[in-house]
Write a structure and sequence with these properties.
223 residues
Length: 223
């Protein structure tokens, strides 16, 4: 693990504790959540998932009427597209008999390529599914990760794959570390490293990265 990434990880973990991410009852719920969370707040995803009641299973979604599915996921926004995406990713899972163990037996790169070829699944969504639903070693890169790299700063390169490679090469190859670190970055971004960062005043004193983040030495950088 690189010294810089290790230092950030230790500080965030000590401050927030184990985030127990991703909040879901089943691996399939993680898959659904990864689609529904696109371009919306997690609180809206929770409302949509709650609308499924006890019917959030791949078998139920596979045979569900699209109009009904749109109605169920309406709180998550973009429900016309997301209903199609859910059908597509569920069909992909169906190729493995909705069996998590069967998915995990396949080569990682094969699975990632299949997901990326699935309608509505981009790189962040694919890596989130692989890490959080199937516990496979990949580091999702989201806007919060890119923000941390830019502000701290971390010379992770540019572009999704470059940043993903940087974190995977610089971290212990551990599902737990990947899981926790990504979640901790999100938590810190929502608490302190916001789009308009909290880097001065009383609230900033609580940021676990305050003493080492380069952004705090130059608070004029608000991007």
């Amino acid at each position: 693990m690189s010294d810089k990434l290790h230092s950030i990880y230790v500080k965030l973990l000590a401050f927030y504790g184990n985030p127990h991410w991703w909040p879901a009852r089943t691996p399939y719920e993680v898959i659904v959540g990864s689609i529904l969370t696109q371009n919306t707040a997690w609180s809206n995803v929770e409302k949509a998932i709650a609308n499924f009641g006890d019917g959030l299973t791949p078998e139920a979604v596979a045979i569900a009427d699209v109009a009904k599915l749109k109605e169920i996921i309406h709180p998550a926004g973009f429900f016309n597209q997301k209903a199609v995406y859910l059908k597509a990713v569920t069909a992909w899972f169906g190729r493995y008999g909705y069996d998590v163990a069967a998915v995990r037996r396949e080569p990682f790169e094969k699975l990632r390529a299949e997901l990326l070829a699935t309608k509505g699944v981009g790189m962040e969504t694919a890596d989130s599914i692989l890490l959080y639903a199937f516990e496979l070693p990949t580091f999702p890169v989201d806007a919060y990760t890119l923000r941390l790299c830019r502000r701290y700063p971390i010379a992770a390169g540019t572009g999704y794959e470059a940043v993903r490679a940087y974190f995977q090469e610089g971290l212990e190859p551990s599902i737990e570390v990947y899981n926790n670190f990504h979640a901790l970055i999100v938590l810190n971004a929502k608490s302190f490293c916001r789009s308009k960062p909290v880097c001065d005043g009383r609230l900033a004193e609580g940021c676990p990265l305050m003493e080492t983040c380069g952004r705090c030495d130059n608070p004029a950088d608000s991007h």
